[in-house]
Specification:
4-stranded antiparallel beta sheet, single chain, mainly beta, 3 domains, 268 residues, 3 helices
Length: 268
C-alpha cells in the first residue's frame, strides 16, 4: 500500500529495552474495512523492516468512518517484504481530528441577560415567560408589542437557514476540528490569502462531510519555510472548525474557497 492516501501521517517506530514495534493508522470508510483489517501474523508490508502484524484496533470516528491502528513486530522470515517507497513532499498530507469546546454565545441569537430595567418593563424571556433578572431575553424585545422579540442573527457566523437551535444557548459542546498539514511549492504570499468555508477538500483528505458546502470553516492557518533536498517549500498547517448543528454563512466567513492552495485568489 505504498503511497496509500488512507494512511494518517507516517509509520511510527516504538522502542523499548528489548524490542522494536512499528505502527500505522488508516482512515477508512466502512466499506473499505474488509480490505484493510489484517489477521494476526500477516506480513506488514508497510513496515521499514520485515515484520508481521501483532495487534490491531478498530475505532469508529463518525458514522461510516473508522480509524484502524495496526502494530507489527520484526520478523526476519516475513515474506513479501517491501519498503514503503518514496513519496514526493508535495504529495504528502498529514491530518488529524480533535474535539474542542465551542461556547454557544447568546449574541449569535441576538440575546442578552435581563437587567432590572427590562424586568420593570415587563419583558418576556426567550421562552415567552415573564422575564426575571438575568433571564435570557431578545435584544429587540421592545420592538414587539408583546415584549417578546425574536432571534437576530447579525452577530452569528452561522447561516440563518441552517442555524443551531437556540436550545444550545449558553452551553459548551465538544465540536470536531480538522487539522491538515501539507507542503507546497507555491509562494507564501499567495497561500496566506486562503480563507473561508468549503469549497472542496483534496480527495486525499476525504474529510467527514467535506462535500457538504458550509460545514467546515478555516479558523487558523500557519505558514512555515521548509527546506527539502535543497529546495524551498512552504509547510502549511490549517485548522478547520465543524458547524455542528448548522452551516457557516459564506457572507460572514469570506465566502467559499475555490482552490485548496490559493482559496479564491488567482495567482498573478
Amino acid at each position: 500500500m505504498s503511497g496509500d492516501k488512507r494512511i494518517i501521517g507516517s509509520n511510527e517506530v516504538n522502542k523499548d529495552e528489548s524490542s522494536n514495534t512499528y505502527s500505522i493508522e488508516y482512515y477508512l470508510k466502512e466499506e473499505e474495512l474488509a480490505d484493510y483489517v489484517p489477521e494476526i501474523g500477516d506480513v506488514a508490508a508497510w513496515a521499514p523492516v520485515p515484520a508481521r502484524v501483532s495487534r490491531f484496533r478498530k475505532s469508529e470516528l463518525a458514522e461510516g468512518y473508522y480509524i484502524l491502528s495496526v502494530e507489527a513486530e520484526p520478523d526476519e522470515n516475513a515474506e513479501g517484504f517491501y519498503s514503503s517507497g518514496k513519496i514526493k513532499i508535495t504529495d504528502k498530507f498529514e491530518w488529524k481530528y480533535e474535539d474542542r469546546q465551542l461556547y454557544y454565545h447568546p449574541k449569535i441569537w441576538g440575546v442578552r441577560r435581563a437587567v432590572e430595567a427590562d424586568v420593570k418593563k415587563g419583558a418576556k424571556n426567550i421562552y415567552k415567560k415573564t422575564a426575571k433578572l438575568k433571564d435570557f431575553i431578545f435584544k429587540n424585545y421592545q420592538d414587539d408589542s408583546g415584549l417578546q422579540g425574536s432571534a437576530d442573527y447579525d452577530e452569528s457566523p452561522f447561516s440563518t437557514k441552517n442555524h443551531p437551535t437556540i436550545k444550545l444557548i449558553g452551553q459548551k459542546r465538544e465540536v470536531t476540528h480538522f487539522i491538515a498539514v501539507f507542503y507546497s511549492s507555491r509562494k507564501a504570499k499567495y497561500l496566506k490569502r486562503f480563507a473561508g468555508i468549503n469549497g472542496r477538500f483534496p480527495s486525499e483528505l476525504d474529510v467527514y462531510n467535506g462535500g457538504v458546502p458550509g460545514k467546515w470553516r478555516l479558523l487558523k492557518q500557519k505558514l512555515e519555510s521548509h527546506l527539502h533536498e535543497g529546495k524551498a517549500y512552504v509547510k502549511v498547517t490549517r485548522v478547520f472548525g465543524y458547524a455542528w448543528g448548522g452551516r457557516w454563512d459564506p457572507d460572514k466567513c469570506i465566502g467559499y474557497w475555490k482552490s485548496w492552495e490559493l482559496g479564491g485568489v488567482k495567482e498573478g
